Amino acid sequence: MSSSETWEIVIGVCALIGVYILTRRYHAWRMARAYNVIVKDLEQKEAMDPSSAVDLPYSRQNIFRIGARDYLPKMLQQMTAHSIVGMTADGKYYLLRGKGRY
User: Fold this and answer.
1) Are the C-beta atoms of 55 and 92 separated by less than 8 Å?
2) Is 102 among the domain residues?
3) CA-based diameter of the chain, in Å?
4) Can you give the pTM of this predicted structure?
């Protein structure tokens, strides 16, 4: 293997690592953005306890949706699992923590 082939392999591996890191950062940014959308949506609807809980249109994933990945349902599941958002027995959502405490 010649020196130029070695450099091509090294550059290729570095490029792959760079693409991997950028895609991870992109997904993290999209998840953070989905988090903010959900919190703002629940705050605007004043869903702060089970009696004021609201139904969210993005609470279920649509398997027939074509296009870009929707991060809202997945983030809503994560927020429910981490006790940031509560869910009533009938599938409505509300914020468990007060404004500004996230």
Assistant:
1) yes
2) no
3) 71
4) 0.77
